[in-house]
Design a protein that fits this description.
Blueprint: H1 2-12, E1 44-47, E2 53-56, E3 63-66, H2 70-78, E4 83-86, H3 94-97, H4 100-104, E5 112-113, H5 125-131, E6 135-139, H6 143-153, E7 157-160, H7 171-183, H8 187-208, E8 213-220, E9 232-234, H9 238-241, E10 245-247, E11 257-259, H10 262-268, E12 272-276, H11 280-289, H12 291-295, H13 298-301, E13 305-308, H14 318-332, H15 342-354, H16 359-365, E14 371-372
Parallel strand pairs: 3-4, 3-6, 4-5, 6-7, 8-10, 8-12, 12-13
Antiparallel strand pairs: 1-2, 9-11, 13-14
């Protein structure tokens, strides 16, 4: 698969950038992208996620990002280099504290606001026109919306990610990283991320074995248009399927995400419960309000309830999702993950994605992560 990707990349990506070091994201002091001979690239065309062809006369030196997940993708490839505008939602609350790149690049929250952000993506046309970024990256926008924005502002708009928010390993994800890499002349860096994702997927799958096995697992507290409680769950998601988790929801529904009835969860009565800490506040409130419900679940009775760090915070947290999978693997397939130390794995993953080990900072936000869930 990697060979095919590189062959595809030769046609999609033009000149490769020069990256100093290995396994780290660009730093905030890095210069604007340059071609191998030290001069900026001449005119080139980027085909975005919607198939739109966007022409550039030179490599952009400044960028603004709108749409959930877009800023994360950009920083994974480019750090905070060249950023001059972000959405308001990316500068406050859990969206800041729950994402690795905000801890690696704290200056991002001081950048100018170019849109509100959230479920409805509404760019601030006036501010974008004033800031005049040389490119606007827009995630989860339709072709018509991007065409309209580009025509109105006369600024190139490049579309990112348009698929399911539960995908971690698929061609659309890899293509999105490649698009940012080509636009900003960071092709080698984008390929490094793609390669790491594929290698990690292979490692996780080999450790978990070839067939679904282990305890009957339920994952609750999954975010859906905001924070949700224990009854919010998912079926057939990469986070669980990759490590062959026996997800009780896989045989019960075809809906990617849903809110169960209490009676249904009691009927299912999973042996092991994973709590996504994106729903921490709601779950603690539910536990205080109705402790008898929780006490009726076998997993709570036997202490088989564990917390994972939020893997989706205004877009997929690819680094944290990988770390969660190693922890879930240790719980459900311990024989295959005996050599995995979560802190060491966190250092490797976060350094690769954001150039800094921010595990301690994220654990300060979510101290309950990667251990048995304790009642307050």
């Amino acid at each position: 698969m990697l060979k095919n990707l590189l062959a595809w990349g030769a046609g999609l990506l033009l000149s490769a950038s020069i990256i100093t070091g290995c396994g780290s994201a660009p730093t905030s002091g890095e210069k604007s992208p340059a071609s191998p001979n030290g001069e900026e690239k001449s005119a080139y065309v980027v085909t975005d996620i919607q198939g739109r062809e966007v022409r550039f006369e030179k490599v952009p030196k400044s960028a603004a990002v709108i749409g959930h997940g877009g800023l994360k993708i950009y920083t994974y490839v480019c750090g905070d280099n060249g950023l001059i505008g972000v959405e308001d939602i990316e500068k406050r609350g859990r969206t800041v504290t729950g994402q690795s790149f905000h801890h690696a690049y704290p200056n991002i929250r001081n950048l100018d606001t170019v849109g509100k952000g959230g479920p409805e993506i509404v760019p601030d046309h006036e501010q974008l026109a004033y800031k005049k970024p040389e490119v606007i990256f827009a995630a989860y926008q339709s072709k018509d919306e991007m065409d309209t924005l580009q025509a109105k502002l006369n600024i190139p708009v490049v579309g990112l990610l348009s698929g399911s928010k539960d995908n971690i390993f698929n061609e659309e994800v890899y293509q999105t990283f490649a698009i940012v890499g080509k636009t900003m002349n960071r092709t080698e860096r984008a390929e490094e991320i793609i390669r790491f994702l594929k290698e990690t997927q292979n490692d996780l799958q080999k450790r978990a074995g070839g067939a679904i096995s282990g305890p009957r697992v339920y994952m609750g507290g999954c975010s859906f248009r905001g924070e949700q409680g224990i009854l919010s769950t998912k079926e057939h998601v990469d986070l669980l399927d990759t490590v062959k988790v026996n997800n009780v929801m896989n045989d019960l529904t075809k809906e990617k995400g849903m809110i169960l009835d209490k009676e249904k969860l009691l009927e299912i009565d999973p042996e092991l419960i994973l709590l996504d800490l994106s729903g921490k506040k709601r779950i603690l409130g539910e536990l205080e309000k109705d402790p008898r419900f929780f006490d009726s679940l076998t997993a709570f009775q036997q202490g088989e309830t564990y917390a994972i760090m939020p893997y989706f915070t205004y877009g997929m947290n690819f680094d944290t999702a990988l770390l969660d999978m190693y922890y879930i693997g240790k719980l459900t397939h311990p024989d295959g993950f005996t050599d995995i130390d979560i802190e060491a794995k966190a250092k490797e993953i976060y350094t690769l994605f954001v150039g800094k080990n921010v595990y301690d900072e994220l654990r300060q936000v979510y101290p309950e992560a990667f251990k048995k869930f304790q009642r307050k």
